């Protein structure tokens, strides 16, 4: 993998990236109140007196939110802090009724961990470890709407008080591709763990992108980091990559023009593909943190941690490794099947059904199932604009189709036609094969007749084959299958052809 | 520790409290008096003593993840939540336009 460099007028530059990801914790109720968290409710219907910061209301932490943060920490091999504490981050804004956000500055619940990213799909060696500094739990703010009234902004507090995990990486990334791979991998892990749904378009996951640049140098460890900027609330992997690229170029231009990069907060404008400075007040960062006197420190016992650990599913890296070693799948296929928890679930259901129908161990049918899912079903669903989540074909129906190929009832090419008909009609594979008369024939008489016809019509090619042009064998197979409308058993065709051409 | 006029003005501004020049100069010695009084605590030797987080030994209680389990701390009370708002509109809080 060649290193990412920005070619400036005065030399080469390297980019240094760290991400702070806000991930909404999957829970029924909010972090400190019993109001619901569901997306898309009528404004202010999911707001309790606690979330509206009415005087006298006290926060009580939601155990599930704490549990999910701990499970997430364990999934990134992080240190779990059995003693953590909530702090108040003070600032005034119309979307924050308390006048402070309850967060964890000094004693976060999760300490240092890391995740591994793969920079090249096809190259299992292209791994890089990205450090994670901490994960803390905090409240989300409400939502402001500015375009509904000429002189007023409207405030909806439904999101106010919903639990967020802030996942802070180390400045370990060095290219847009690495930043994108990190965010994708983090999203995959969160979805496996079930601690965040990862829906970036609904705002369940958004990233603050910290970028700085420095000159490429031979010194061990390189030049010191440059001044960084923070681009807020970037809500897709593609946009994160674009922010890194644009911001790095902008900073190089500023420095090479004799200026200095200002440490500031910026916004990304996807329409113009550029970042711009937020006109924030100078004292915006004077948050006057202090321990929240409404909350005691959070103390977790061993039984709680043990329950969290026991409830973790097989994680993507482990699953991928198992697919390669125990199931014998290629690195690429294992990567595709484990990239999303839903795909892995679908594949495992298909594999179990296929193995049961074939009465064979899973390892023996895994390649067939994986190849069919990746090269046949994905393509067919794609054409219909669908995904596995709304696939008309279930894992059991897929297994039925694969079983028909395995036992020789239909050929691989007929299976493609049957799949299309299954997707159209929702009928089972066996019923379609029966109805449409697609059964493969091993009737040697019929196949022989077809072969004789082909060989007679292509006497010149038979000559060439006998003269040593063995590649023509495939041509004869193809022609025979065509003559048999794809229904001939390929094994029988091969065998008969070999005899006749000998 | 002590504060000067500029610091008090800044804290007032961060807290969105309007303080006149005259009040400001009166407030500086008052706040410094409070700070000096609290600072007497610095005379106590606390070597080896864990910071106290509550007056009585206690653990933080946690809630179960149940929506509206207790009506006092649940949602579905838009009218009550908006009852004291100066400009509720269409179920929203209306506030003076704030746009970055």
TrEMBL record, chain A:
The keyword Protein biosynthesis applies. Keywords: ATP-binding, Ligase, Nucleotide-binding, Protein biosynthesis. PROSITE patterns: GATB. Transmembrane segments: none annotated. Pfam families: GatB_N, GatB_Yqey. It is an enzyme of class 6 (ligase). Its EC number is 6.3.5.-. Residues 345-501 form the Asn/Gln amidotransferase domain. It catalyses: L-aspartyl-tRNA(Asn) + L-glutamine + ATP + H2O = L-asparaginyl-tRNA(Asn) + L-glutamate + ADP + phosphate + 2 H(+); L-glutamyl-tRNA(Gln) + L-glutamine + ATP + H2O = L-glutaminyl-tRNA(Gln) + L-glutamate + ADP + phosphate + H(+). HAMAP family: GatB. NCBIfam families: gatB, PRK05477.1-2, PRK05477.1-4, PRK05477.1-5. Belongs to the GatB/GatE family. GatB subfamily. Allows the formation of correctly charged Asn-tRNA(Asn) or Gln-tRNA(Gln) through the transamidation of misacylated Asp-tRNA(Asn) or Glu-tRNA(Gln) in organisms which lack either or both of asparaginyl-tRNA or glutaminyl-tRNA synthetases. The reaction takes place in the presence of glutamine and ATP through an activated phospho-Asp-tRNA(Asn) or phospho-Glu-tRNA(Gln). Heterotrimer of A, B and C subunits. This is Aspartyl/glutamyl-tRNA(Asn/Gln) amidotransferase subunit B.
Automatic annotation (TrEMBL), chain B:
The keyword Nucleotide-binding applies. SUPFAM superfamilies: Glu-tRNAGln amidotransferase C subunit. The keyword Transcription regulation does not apply. It catalyses: L-aspartyl-tRNA(Asn) + L-glutamine + ATP + H2O = L-asparaginyl-tRNA(Asn) + L-glutamate + ADP + phosphate + 2 H(+); L-glutamyl-tRNA(Gln) + L-glutamine + ATP + H2O = L-glutaminyl-tRNA(Gln) + L-glutamate + ADP + phosphate + H(+). Its EC number is 6.3.5.-. Allows the formation of correctly charged Asn-tRNA(Asn) or Gln-tRNA(Gln) through the transamidation of misacylated Asp-tRNA(Asn) or Glu-tRNA(Gln) in organisms which lack either or both of asparaginyl-tRNA or glutaminyl-tRNA synthetases. The reaction takes place in the presence of glutamine and ATP through an activated phospho-Asp-tRNA(Asn) or phospho-Glu-tRNA(Gln). Belongs to the GatC family. This is Aspartyl/glutamyl-tRNA(Asn/Gln) amidotransferase subunit C. The lineage of its organism: Bacteria, Pseudomonadati, Pseudomonadota, Alphaproteobacteria, Sphingomonadales. The gene is gatC.
């Amino acid at each position: 993998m060649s290193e990412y460099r920005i070619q400036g007028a005065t030399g080469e530059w390297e980019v240094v990236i760290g991400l702070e990801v806000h991930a909404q914790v999957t829970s029924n109720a909010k972090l400190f109140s019993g109001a619901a968290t569901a997306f898309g409710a009528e404004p202010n219907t999911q707001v309790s007196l606690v979330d509206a910061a009415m005087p006298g209301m006290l926060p009580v932490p939601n155990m599930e939110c704490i549990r999910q943060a701990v499970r997430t920490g364990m999934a990134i091999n992080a240190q779990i802090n059995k003693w953590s504490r909530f702090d108040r981050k003070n600032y005034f804004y119309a979307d924050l009724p308390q006048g402070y956000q309850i967060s964890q500055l000094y004693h976060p619940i999760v300490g240092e961990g890391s995740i591994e990213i793969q920079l090249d799909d096809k190259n299992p060696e292209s791994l890089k470890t990205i450090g994670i500094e901490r994960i803390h739990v905090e409240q989300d703010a409400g939502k402001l709407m500015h375009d509904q009234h000429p002189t007023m902004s409207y405030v909806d507090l439904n999101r106010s008080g919903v639990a967020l995990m802030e996942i802070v990486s180390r400045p370990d990334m060095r290219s847009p591709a690495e930043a994108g791979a990190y965010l994708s991998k983090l999203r995959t892990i969160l979805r496996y763990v079930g601690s965040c749904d990862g829906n970036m378009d609904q705002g369940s996951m958004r990233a603050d992108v910290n970028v700085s640049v420095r000159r490429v140098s031979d010194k061990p460890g390189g030049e010191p980091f440059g001044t960084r900027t923070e681009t807020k609330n970037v809500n897709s992997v593609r946009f994160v990559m674009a922010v890194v690229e644009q911001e790095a170029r902008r900073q190089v231009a500023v420095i090479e023009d004799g200026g200095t990069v200002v440490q500031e907060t910026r916004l990304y404008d996807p329409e113009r593909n550029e970042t711009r400075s937020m006109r924030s007040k100078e004292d915006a960062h004077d948050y006057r943190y202090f321990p929240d006197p409404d909350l005691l420190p959070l103390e977790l016992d061993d039984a709680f941690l043990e329950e969290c650990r026991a409830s973790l599913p097989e994680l993507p890296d482990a699953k991928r490794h198992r697919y390669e070693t125990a199931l014998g799948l290629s690195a690429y296929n294992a990567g595709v099947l484990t990239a999303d928890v839903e795909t892995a679930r679908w594949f495992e259901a298909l594999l179990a059904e296929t193995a049961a129908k074939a009465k064979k161990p899973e390892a023996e049918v895994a390649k067939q199932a994986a190849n069919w899912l990746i090269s046949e079903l994905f393509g067919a669903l794609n054409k219909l604009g669908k995904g596995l989540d709304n696939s008309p074909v279930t894992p059991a129906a897929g297994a039925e189709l694969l079983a028909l190929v395995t036992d020789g009832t239909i050929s691989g090419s007929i299976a493609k036609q049957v799949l299309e008909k299954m997707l159209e009609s929702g009928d089972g594979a066996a019923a379609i094969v029966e109805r449409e008369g697609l059964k493969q024939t091993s009737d040697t008489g019929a196949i022989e007749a077809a072969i004789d016809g082909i060989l007679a019509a292509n006497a010149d090619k038979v000559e060439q084959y006998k003269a040593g042009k063995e590649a023509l064998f495939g041509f004869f197979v193809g022609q025979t299958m065509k003559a048999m409308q794809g229904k001939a058993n390929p094994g029988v065709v091969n065998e008969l052809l070999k005899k006749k051409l000998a | 520790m002590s504060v000067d006029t500029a610091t008090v003005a800044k804290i007032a501004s961060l807290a969105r409290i309007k303080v006149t020049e005259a009040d400001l100069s009166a407030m500086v010695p008052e706040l410094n008096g409070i700070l000096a009084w609290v600072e007497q605590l610095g005379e106590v030797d606390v070597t080896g003593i864990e910071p106290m987080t509550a007056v009585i030994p206690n653990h933080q209680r946690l809630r179960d993840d149940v929506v509206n389990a207790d009506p006092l701390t649940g949602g579905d009370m838009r009218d009550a939540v908006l009852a004291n708002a100066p400009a509720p509109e269409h179920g929203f809080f209306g506030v003076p336009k704030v746009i970055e």
